[in-house]
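Tutorial, part two.
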Amino acid sequence: MVVLAWSAASIPVCAQTSDARDLAALGDRSADLANSYLRLWSESNEAALADVHEIYAPRVKFFGRAMDRRSLAAEKKRFVRRWPIRTYAHRPGTMRVQCNPTTRACVVKSIIDWKAAAPQRGAVSSGASRFELGVDFSGPQPLVLYENGRVISRRRS
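Running the prediction step on this input gives:
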């Protein structure tokens, strides 16, 4: 049995630089997607729901549950009806992105601050959550493979 061991010293400098640039580009694209995602979900119910079919993979893991796009769209539609007014923002300085160059996938983690309101119910909820988004870059366009998180503080009125 032959075992090949690679070290950074055995890879040409141009390959190291190219790989580092590629990894950095994946990280930047993942951060941009996560920022756009929160901005869209803060602005428009119609665009946010249409976004499900654009950015999510055909099968995703959504807060621990495996589902297809249609089920995910239905879940998000229920949420939009319950909370028609929403604002989400990554807390400055909390976003971290880790990418795997072999699988061309990245994970974006941050803390998000949010506020949701339902004027028809007289309800307002705000707080902070841990946020995690898994993004796949192996195909022709980036696709969200999973979304996860948990509330870390909440205020209701």
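The longest strand covers residues 105-118. In part three we will examine how such features are distributed along the chain.
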